[in-house]
Design a protein that fits this description.
The chain is an alpha+beta fold. The protein is built from 7 helices and 18 strands. The chain folds into 3 domains: about 80 residues, Pseudouridine synthase (2-Layer Sandwich); about 130 residues, Pseudouridine synthase, CATH 3.30.2350; about 55 residues, Archaeosine Trna-guanine Transglycosylase, Chain: A, domain 4 (Roll). Strands 1, 2, 3, 4, 7, 10, 11, 12 and 13 form a 9-stranded mixed β-sheet that branches. A 5-stranded mixed β-sheet has the order 14-16-17-18-15. It has a two-stranded antiparallel ribbon with strand order 5-6. The chain starts with a strand and ends with a strand.
Length: about 290
Amino acid sequence: MFGFLNINKPPGVTSRDVVNKVQRLLPRKTKIGHAGTLDPMATGVLILCIGPATRLVPHVQEQTKSYRAGFRLGCRSDTDDSTGNVIESLEARTVDRSQVETELKRFQGRIQQTPPQFSALHVNGQRAYDLARAGQTVDLAPREVEISRIELLRCERRNLEVDIDCSSGTYIRSIARDLGEALHIGGLMTSLVRTGIGPFRIETAIDPEMLTRDNIAEAILPPTMALTNWPSITGTDQQISELRQGKTVASSGLPSAASAYVIDNAHRLIALGEVNDSARFQPRIVFPQA
């Protein structure tokens, strides 16, 4: 029980609901967490981290995320999506595809983005959405995010379908809102599907209803999937024993300061670390023996 489950989250449930459901299928005391929340209205890739893989959450979260989103122009809401209090804009008009594509290009690259009022960010120890529900206006500072790809797939009157590849921390609702403001008619998000996180793709994601106590173990993906861009070292039995004692081992010619991981001959993940100035692998996280 060490690795990831690539779950296709259904609509209308929270990410925590999915975690709780899967946890009931695992042996008692098995750790479980998720690497990136999806709102209840959203569907698609939700990565559950099982057992020691909970220590790899940051490495999943730093992977590029891919989304397919529905936007509606000509209206605004307090949540920046269709679940909130929606108000049609008095200045609503139909925009043509070229206008939308021109404005979408302004979102590509590193941009400053203000999160939605209804978000899970902490403000003075409280969730922003709790303050917003209490009627308070929350002052959320803009944050830098990166949009590596944004593509308009469909434009029918004021209804759009958009594909987006972006960094962790990006709010797709904010893109819908800001696009609408750039066009001077408002905008909000009507649907959201996360189609991928790094190598985890929706095409291979599992319906959580299909998981049972009997088949869950075979559905768990290897923990090294969170480390696709890292070099690896295949350790000998002696080296693995030394790593478990916190010792350094030969780095197989990797450059100084390179992050790397060690596997055994069965491709099981042993340790994460980096190469020190003495050209040796220094473990930072050593995983327990299977």
